[in-house]
Amino acid sequence: MILPSVLTLGAQLLTPVADNVPTLNIEQVCQGIAVQGGSSFHDPSIPKQKEDCISSEREVRQELIKQWAKFSAGDRRDCVNESTMGGESSYTELLTCLEMARDVRNLGHEQNDPTMPSVTPR
Fold this sequence. Notes:
elongated, 122 residues, mainly alpha
């Protein structure tokens, strides 16, 4: 029956995205980074570079888990969507997006704060 499937899909679309740190497939981006860093496709250092990238991405994911609740729900949703668009996903890209969104928002608040000293451009 089609109706329950449609209702299930509708419920999934209404469920907030990005309540938790998503699980990204970092294999593809790390493989690409490793291959780009190699001198040829047969470079023996490529597997090591890929493993280093995966290790780094896992560390960034742990940092995201610690900081996740500090980012706004809207920024989390937007950055997850941006970071997963196009196939290759990276926790580093996701964290950078979230930090930039937060910093831009904070900069806007500082510029509107009358207690902050004003800086005149030269």
